[in-house]
Sequence to fold (106 residues):
Amino acid sequence: MYRGLLPGLAAALLLAGSATRAAEPPPNGPLGGPPGASSCTGCHASQKIANSEIPRIAGRKAEDIVTFMRQYRSGAWPSSVMGRIAKGFDDQQIDAIAAWFAAQPE
Ligand code: HEC
Fold:
């Protein structure tokens, strides 16, 4: 009886465990933010960096960031790297990331 129960119990625990994990956002950078945002801050610094070639996006309007990302993704606007990067995100992810950047101090 004990032996018969154990695999079922283990499976139930595993299922519960993975359900809990799925609800948690993946680990992110020190600033937190939605999934993917930490990949942006690697290039788009959250603090002002003198002479940076890369435009700052923290504190920008969310709609503007969304527009940029969609245009880059479709190829409508030329870019060196953003076209490739934007293709990795769907509309919901872009919305979440844009809202988060908009809420960051300029
Ligand atoms: C590899 C470095 C790099 C990463 C990572 C990166 N960007 Fe960019 N981003 C750039 C560069 C460089 C530009 C200027 C356009 C170009 O040449 O692609 C830019 C431009 C932009 C712009 C337009 C801002 C303006 O005023 O022109 C937005 C918005 C933007 N990125 C958002 C993001 C978001 C959101 C992410 C994360 C999903 C991200 N970027 C990740 C390098 C990066």
Notes: The pocket of heme C is lined by residues 36, 39-40, 42-44, 54-55, 57, 65, 68-69, 79-82, 85, 89, 97 (CB under 6 Å).
